[in-house]
């Protein structure tokens, strides 16, 4: 039987960003340096495949410092942690390595700087997401007000509208965030903030690529995890850019073949925490059913790299 033809538009950039790459390297290098087990507070990045792979190498994933023994190293995930976490680890004299992405740490520093200048902080982010918890946790309890939507901006009760600043989560939708920032600036003209927002280069570039790719495709798949904020935003961006069917898949087994019956073109991208092996696994699954032609959709080139912390660069 001959297979039907399928054009796969493959977005670039996609997949691992510099912060994810560094965070995974930190766990691997810590295992090499100190042996197993090495504890990791929260999923190092939001991807089950990555976490399972590191677990097999001797990493133990926990949610709180209390779940770590005091005599083993602990690594903090790429999403960042509240200030209280490293303070408590130091108090317990634990060996810890912070794998917080430098672009998240930058936001932490901004928030602290505004607070020291006497400004009340507003954070644009998703409630309960570890990055939001980490960034809000840079300042004393109650000092950061969270807004998630334009409607929240209308409701937020501030101390002094003339003394305000804002920061954002790094993995938000660029377009939604622009609207929220505009609403903040309209209601509080004196609000201080970054030039646009704090969304990182990787989030921005992956959304840009999807905007170009989505209108070319009958359907679109985003390889990524359901708890990955940046991956979920790619699905939304794809749908909004005009793709009738945009779905998140963790790997090939998640593909809903019935929903994809009759398609002639497909867009594929991957969130910043999704490894390329899973993208290849998805493409291979399509090759089994279709005569596939892969066409890259390249909208930017990335050459960002972050160094691992010094403690891991020194020899044991
Ligand atoms: O999927 P991630 O682990 O995290 P979120 O997109 O949920 O924030 O990707 C790495 C991003 C960071 C920090
Ligand atoms: Fe850093 Fe952006 Fe990657 Fe998050 S998505 S780890 S902020 S580069």
From TrEMBL:
Its cofactor is [4Fe-4S] cluster. Binds 1 [4Fe-4S] cluster per subunit. Gene3D superfamilies: 3.40.50.11270, 4-hydroxy-3-methylbut-2-enyl diphosphate reductase, catalytic domain. (2E)-4-hydroxy-3-methylbut-2-enyl diphosphate binds at residues 46, 79, 129, 170, 228-230, 273. Pathway: Isoprenoid biosynthesis; dimethylallyl diphosphate biosynthesis; dimethylallyl diphosphate from (2E)-4-hydroxy-3-methylbutenyl diphosphate: step 1/1; Isoprenoid biosynthesis; isopentenyl diphosphate biosynthesis via DXP pathway; isopentenyl diphosphate from 1-deoxy-D-xylulose 5-phosphate: step 6/6. Pfam families: LYTB (PF02401). One of its GO terms (molecular function) is 4 iron, 4 sulfur cluster binding. Belongs to the IspH family. This is 4-hydroxy-3-methylbut-2-enyl diphosphate reductase.
């Amino acid at each position: 039987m001959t297979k039907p033809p399928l054009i796969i538009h493959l977005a670039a950039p996609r997949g691992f960003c510099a912060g994810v790459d560094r965070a995974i390297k930190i766990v691997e290098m810590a295992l090499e340096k100190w042996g197993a087990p090495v504890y990791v507070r929260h999923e190092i990045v939001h991807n089950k495949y990555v976490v399972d792979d590191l677990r097999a190498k001797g990493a133990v994933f926990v949610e709180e410092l209390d779940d770590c023994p005091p005599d083993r190293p602990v690594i903090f995930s790429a999403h960042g942690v509240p200030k209280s976490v490293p303070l408590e680890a130091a108090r317990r004299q634990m060996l810890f390595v912070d794998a917080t992405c430098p672009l998240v740490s930058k936001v932490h520093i901004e928030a602290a700087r505004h607070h020291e200048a006497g400004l009340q902080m507003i954070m644009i982010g998703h409630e309960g997401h570890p990055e939001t918890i980490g960034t809000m946790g840079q300042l004393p309890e109650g000092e950061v007000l969270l807004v998630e939507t334009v409607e929240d901006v209308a409701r937020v009760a501030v101390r002094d509208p003339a003394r305000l600043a804002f920061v954002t989560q790094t993995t938000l939708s660029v377009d939604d965030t622009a609207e929220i920032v505009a609403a903040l600036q309209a209601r509080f003209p004196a609000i201080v903030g970054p030039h646009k927002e704090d969304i990182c280069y990787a989030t921005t570039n992956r959304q840009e690529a999807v905007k170009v790719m989505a209108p070319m495709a009958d359907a679109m798949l985003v390889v990524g995890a359901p708890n990955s904020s940046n991956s979920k935003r790619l699905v939304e961006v794809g749908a909004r850019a005009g793709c009738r069917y945009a779905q998140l898949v963790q790997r090939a087994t998640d593909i809903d073949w019935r929903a994809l019956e009759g398609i002639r073109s497909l867009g594929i991208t991957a969130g910043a925490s999704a490894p390329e092996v899973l993208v290849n696994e998805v493409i291979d699954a399509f090759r089994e059913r279709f005569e596939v032609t892969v066409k890259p959709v390249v909208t930017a080139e990335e050459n960002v790299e972050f160094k691992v912390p010094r403690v891991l660069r020194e020899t044991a």
